[in-house]
Amino acid sequence: MLREYFNKMKGSTKSPPSVSLEEIIWSWIGAFAGIGTVAYLNYSRFENTDLVMIVGSFGASAVLIYGAVKSPLAQPRNLIGGHVFSAVIGVACYNLFHDYMWFASAVAVATAIAFMHASKTLHPPGGATALIAVIGGEKIHALGYLYALIPAGAGAVIMLAIALLINNIPRKRRYPEFWI
User: Fold this and answer.
1) Which of 43, 50, 99, 130 fits a 20 to 30 Å CA distance from 150?
2) Count of other CB atoms within 10 angstroms of residue 110
3) In this structure, how many other beta carbons lie within 10 angstroms of the beta carbon of residue 154?
4) At 121, is the secondary structure helix, strand, or coil?
5) Residue pair 157/80 in contact by the 8 Å Cβ criterion
6) Res 39: pLDDT
């Protein structure tokens, strides 16, 4: 029984094939444009306000929506729903359990994953969005539930718009695979 358990850790498939140089370049262009736009808005429009437009989880979203465009985890429903739902859950967990940050962190991420599964919006960066709501600084905590709209929702929508524009330029790329 123990041997069978450890044998699972060997893996069962080979490494996926390499992607083409064209795919790499379009992924780079999309990520640069998406993160660049959100970061520009953050540093040029929101820097001297109580709002924030960019969070670390957007970096992981960029990998999916510009680099893994066919993945179910990269589709618009998952991108927007994953970030917004997880942000709400993260804020709620911080509000309820901020005296026990380790517990708030664990509950936020675990609950976000469960909710994303149940709502068919699984987007791995959503786990980070929930965690950021808990461990973020004063600026994030001051946003309260607005965090779900700005930056989580608005930033994801901006990145989605850029993904729609950039990912459909090359003939061999298509985004999205599905909306709902």
Assistant:
1) 99
2) 14
3) 17
4) coil
5) yes
6) 97
3-state helix, strand, coil in the chain (%, to 5): 70, 0, 30
Q: Which phi-psi region, left, alpha or beta, contains residue 11 (left: φ > 0; alpha: ψ -120 to 50)?
A: left
Under 8 Å CB-to-CB from 79, ≥6 apart: which residues? 61, 64, 65, 123, 156, 159, 160
d(CA 107, CA 155): 24
Q: Is 16 strand, coil or helix?
A: coil
Residue pair 80/160 in contact by the 8 Å Cβ criterion: yes
Look up residue 40 and give its amino acid. Y
Residue ranges covered by each domain of the chain: 22-167
| Among 70, 60, 62, residue whose Cα is nearest residue 34 | 62
Q: Which phi and psi angles does 100 have, rounded to 5°?
A: -130, 75
Q: Going residue by residue through the chain, which has 180 residues, state the pLDDT in tens, using 9 for 90 and above.
A: 888 898 889 888 888 889 999 999 999 999 999 999 999 999 999 888 888 999 999 999 999 999 999 999 999 999 999 999 999 999 999 999 999 999 999 999 999 999 999 999 999 999 999 999 999 999 999 999 999 999 999 999 999 999 999 999 999 999 999 998
